[in-house]
Amino acid sequence: MFGIGWPEIICILLLGLIIIGPERLPGVIKDVQAALYAARKAINNAKAELNGEFSDLGADLEEFRQPLSQIARIQRMGPKAAITRALFDDDEDFLDSFDPRKIMKGDTAGEAYRRQAHQQDLRGQEPRPQRDRETPPTQRHDGPGPAAPSGGFSWDDVT
Q: Contact 141/148 with Cβ under 8 angstroms?
């Protein structure tokens, strides 16, 4: 407990035997033993008395324990949980409809297109786009002379 080993205890007993004397040493040992017993008994009585008083206070403090635990729970919440609790009475389903991670877990149009493209690649076909767009044919002028005006952009106009 205090770092005292057997050599120190034997040294203390020898010093006690020399200083006190062999005829009074047993009486001193009994007195020290009685003092230690009285100190332990006083400490145990004080503990029992304090525990009895605090058990009465425990019932009084119980009414404060519930609001304090609610405050501690609110402090541990993140911003999303605090807003949900304040605005929607702990109904997280409303905010989950805006959560992009949960939206992307479900099937989306892009996911369906990627699956279709992957399946067509496995078959050796090229994937078809979802919407066919018609592109206007481009007019090329390969002959000599100025190109016919098409109403569009031409590099001949720049040079």
A: yes
pLDDT in tens, 83-140: 777 777 766 666 666 677 777 776 666 666 777 777 777 776 555 555 555 555 555 5
Spatial distance between the Cα atoms of 51 and 45, rounded to a whole number of angstroms: 10
Residue type for position 58:
G
Residue 126 CA to residue 121 CA, distance in Å, equals 6
Tokens of 2: 């205090």
What is the pTM assigned to this prediction?
A: 0.33
Task: Compute the CA torsion angle 73, 74, 75, 78 (nearest 10 deg).
Answer: 110
Query: How many alpha carbons fall within 13 Å on the CB side of residue 121?
Result: 6
Compute CA 103 distance to the chain's CA centroid, rounded to the nearest angstrom. Answer: 23
List, for residues 55-85, the tens digit of each pLDDT value: 777 777 777 888 888 888 888 888 877 777 7
Q: How far apart are CA 159 and CA 157, in angstroms?
A: 6
